[in-house]
Amino acid sequence: MGESIHTTKQPRRPHYLREWMERRQITAAELSRQTGADKGQISRWLDGTAPGVKWHNVLRDFFNAGYEGIYRHPDDCWATKYFEGRQQEEVDRIKQTMDLLFPNQARAGGGATER
To answer: Domain boundaries in the chain?
Structure first.
């Protein structure tokens, strides 16, 4: 196969920028003002283009989204922060309690639901 003529074009990579923006109740214009990103750039990201490393780091810091940044759904982030720094025994107890309160319907024969 031949080489791509778009060597500087950022590839499409699934990300959750729109969900992070919704969670923060922030518009593209406001994100532009707060981060310095061009509005056209933000529009391309919202259309599915992945931000480059520099902009991913800016967005990650802006949203306080952890190492994986916008490539992790904001709902996934809370659990990571919640369990951070806890002893394994405590994590296991929390998981057991959650399983009792919110049984996994797929294991119980009820079918799984996707986010």
So the answer is: 17-73
H or E element at residue 63: helix 53-63
Distance CA 38, CA 87 (A): 43
Contact indicator for 86, 46 with CB cutoff of 8 Å: no
Residue 5, amino acid? I
Please give the chain's pLDDT, 115 residues, in tens.
555 555 555 556 789 999 999 999 999 999 999 999 999 999 999 998 999 999 999 999 999 888 888 998 888 867 777 888 999 999 999 999 999 999 887 655 555 445 4
Separation between Cα atoms, residue 13 and residue 69, nearest integer Å: 13
How far apart CA 6 and CA 4 sit, in angstroms, is 5
pTM of the model: 0.63
28-35 vs 39-46: helix axis angle to the nearest 10? Answer: 130
**What does R_g of the chain's alpha carbons equal in angstroms?**
19
